[in-house]
């Protein structure tokens, strides 16, 4: 029987969060929070890994994980700071106005070059098998990042009572500032499409709706 363990591989997480809330009074409410954190990967003194490639750029640096279901295949999630602000105001004539703003540090941009396995480097090491290719990182994880992200969503509604019904016409504006922040780039540097943009924030969208309760 073979038993596989992670030996002394571990991750160290440290973070702090500050939040504030203003309950509904005097026709307005608000929620806000700011988070700062860091998650570092450690392979320990026994160097608990099977593939030595890129360990020098991962050991002691930020933990990242690949997004799932996006279809991009090159977005790694890690952000040290995140800010959120939301609120609502009860305006005259029965209008309710609300908005949500969030901002975060850009995700890591993990540039790499693709080379034949075992011709790669002395620095990053070599896989213990022959053939194939290996992707060698050019920077430590978290040292190079995509642009910071920010977004504003806006909502306005005007509830109306009609007989026994409660009708709520509404207007939503997503990405109010029409930000076009880069979300993903082609990471392979020895490619003809290196650094080409593969994803940006979706453009402004305006939605009209109506909700009826009776």
Word description of this protein:
The protein has one domain (10-213). Strand 5 (81-90) and strand 6 form a beta hairpin. It has 214 residues and is an all-beta fold. It has strands spanning 10-25, 28-42, 65-66, 76-77, 81-90, 96-104, 112-116, 133-137, 149-157, 160-162, 165-174, 182-185, 197-200, 205-213. Strands 1, 2, 5, 6, 9, 10, 11 and 14 form an eight-stranded antiparallel beta sheet that branches. A two-stranded antiparallel sheet has the order 3-4. It has a two-stranded antiparallel ribbon with strand order 7-8. 0% of the residues lie in helices and 48% in strands.
How is this structure best summarized?
With 214 residues, the protein is mainly beta.
Helix content: under 10%
> What proportion of the residues form beta strands (DSSP E)?
over 45%
Number of DSSP E strands: 14
Low-confidence stretches: 120-124
Structural class: mainly beta
Give the tally of structural domains. Answer: 1
User: What is the rounded distance between the termini?
Assistant: 65 Å
Please write the string of helix (H) and strand (E) elements: EEEEEEEEEEEEEE
Shape: elongated
How confident overall, as mean pLDDT? 88
Q: Report Rg.
A: 24 Å
In DSSP terms (H or I, runs of 4 or more residues), the helix count works out at 0
